[in-house]
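pasting for ref. prot 1 ->
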Amino acid sequence: MQVYLVGGAVRDALLGREVKERDYVVVGATPEQLIKQGYQQVGKDFPVFLHPKTKEEYALARTERKQGQGYTGFICDFTPDVTLEQDLIRRDLTVNAIAQAEDGTLVDPFGGQSDIENRLLRHVSDAFSEDPLRILRVARFAARYHYLGFSIAPETERLLIAMVKAGELETLTAERVWLECEKSLSDGAFAEFLNTLFKIGGLHVISPTLESQWSDALYQTMQARFDYANKHSITDTALLFSQVTLSLTESDIHTIAQQIRLPNEVRDVALNTVAHRSILTDKQPDCDALLGCFNRLDLWRRPERLNAVLKALEISEQKPVACITQLHQVTEQASAVDPQQFIAQGIKGADIKTALENARLSIIKNYFS
C-alpha cells in the first residue's frame, strides 16, 4: 500500500501559497484494509476514507467511466491494481494532477510542474469534456490564480467554448452552480470568475441579463468593488454577491435566485440594495421616502437589514455613503421612539401607528430638512 499527497495541496505548495487542506490517494489497497486500520469510510459507494486521527481524506486510487449525462454519471473502479497514473489522468488540470510520495518525491506524468512555471491551466486528457462541472472549476481556478499571472491554455479554452456551445452547462444543477459561485466569492476573485465565464460564452449560467450587459467597463467596476472588499476584509457572501446585481432589476434578481438557487439572505440583500440604493445614497434624501425605506426594510425589528444595505453600498462606491453619520443618528433616535408614550396619552387603535410614524418622521426631518 502506497500513500501520496495529491491535488491542491501539492499545487499550492509549489506556488508558495498556504496549504489549507490535504487530500491523499492510496494505491494498492482495499476498503477492508483501510477500515481495519481505523479509517472511516465516507459514503457507501465512493472510496473515500477519513484518517482515524487527522480526519484528512484518503481516497483509493480509481478510474472513472462515463455513463449517462451530467457530472454525476460516472462509474468508479477502485480495485487494488489501479495505478497512480491511472488515478491522476482522470483529474481536470495538469496542475492538479501532481502527486507527492511520502519521501517528498513528486510524481508528475502530465507536465503539471512545467505548466505551473509557465502559469498555464491545461486539461489533462480528452476525458475532461465528460464532466461539465469542470467548466466552472476552471473558471474558478483562472480567477483564483489570476494575480499570479495564470491563464487558460489555448487548447483548453477552445474545449471549454465547445462544451458551453454544446449545452453542457445546462446539465448542472442550480445548487452546484451556486456552490462554485460561493467558492469563487470566498476566493475574493469573483469579478475575474465572471469575466472568464463571459469569455467562454458561459456567463448565462448565472444570468443571461448580466451576460448581455457585460463589458470591459463593467468588469473594471466589479474588480474595483471586490478589491475594496478585500482591502477591508469584507467576506460576507451576501454583501459580495450584491455587487454583481446592482446593474440589474429586481425582476432580474428574482430570476437569478430561481436559476441558481440563491440562499434567501443573499437574495434579500441583493433585492434590498437595488430597491433602496437611490434614496440611501442621496446627500439630501426626501424625508417621507426615507421613512418609507425604513418601513419596508422593517428597520424597527430588523436593523441588520439596513446595515447590510449600507455596507453593500459602501462596497459599490468604495467609500461610505455620503450621509452615513446622519443615517446612523436618525435610525438610532427613530428606533428609540416608544409607542407606550402615545398609549399613556390616551391615543388608541390605529391612531397609535399614525402618532408613531409622525414622531419618526419628525426626527428624520430634524436631520434632512
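and prot 2 ->
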Amino acid sequence: MTTTSSQDLTNTARPMVGTDLAAEMVAKAAERARKLQDATGVQPCLATVLVGDDPASATYVRMKQNRSKKAGIGSVSVVLPAETTTEQLVAELTRLSEDPAVHGILLQHPVPDQIDERAAFEAIAPAKDVDGVTMHSFAAMAFGQPGLRSCTPGGILRLLEAYDVPLAGAHAVVIGRSPILGKPAGMLLLASNATVTYTHSRTRGLPELVRQADVVVAAVGKPNFVRGDWLKPGAVVVDAGYNEGNVGDVHAEEAARVASLLTPVPGGVGPMTIALLLEQTVDAAEAQTARR
C-alpha cells in the first residue's frame, strides 16, 4: 500500500499513516451503501447526538456528517442543550434506537458532567452501536464474538494489519484504561495472539514496562507523555492521543529516533476511526435490512 506522511518523521521510524487506508475503506463502504440502496431502497443512516455547544465536539460531529455524506450514508443530527439530563438523553437515544430509518447511533463524548455517560451509552441498541461503546460491544470483543468494534481500537488493529505488524507472540503494552479505547484495544490485541500488558499514568515503573514492548499503544490523554527513552529500539508505536495543538500522547520527535513504525498526529489513528465508523454503519444497515 502506497502511503504519504502528514508529519515529517525523518529519522528511524517509518510513518504508519492511516489516511490512504481509511480512504480505501470509505470507498468500499460507499460502494456497499450504493448497492444496498439500489437493491432494497434503504440508505444507511447514521444519527449523531451532541449535547451542549462545545466547539471541538461540534466540529468533530460536522466532520463525521460530511464524511458520511461523501460515502452515501444519510445522517440525522440531534443537538441537545447543555443542561440536558441523563433521563432526557436516554429518552432521545432510546427513540433513535427504535427508529427503523436509523441504522447507527453516535453519541459524541465527552458529555456534560451532570450526565451519567455509561447510562447514556447503554441506551443505544447494540445493533446500532456503530461506535462500539456499549457493554455488549465490549463483551463481544473480549469473547471474540461477532459484533461492532470500538472504532478507535478497531481502526488501530486494521492499521497494524495493513502494515504487516506481526502480533502473534508479540508483547503489547497499552497505556490507558478507557472503556472505549485502552481496554478494548487490549482485548483486540489479545485476540490477535499478542501478550498484553495494561498500564496507565499511575503505573509504577511505567518507563521500564514500556521498554519491554514490541508494540506500544498510547491512549492516556496526556501530551508528549511517552518519551523516546521509554521505547525499545524497533518498537511499533501507535499514538492514539490527540491533544491541543495537534499533539499526541507520544513525543514524536524522540520516538522517531527509536521506533520502527510510528503513527503521525494527525493523519494516523484519526482517519481510521472515522473510516471504521462509516464501515460499521453500513454493516449495521445491511444486518438490520436482512432481518426485516
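DSSP finds ten helices and nine strands in the chain.
Residues 1-10 have pLDDT under 50 and may be disordered.
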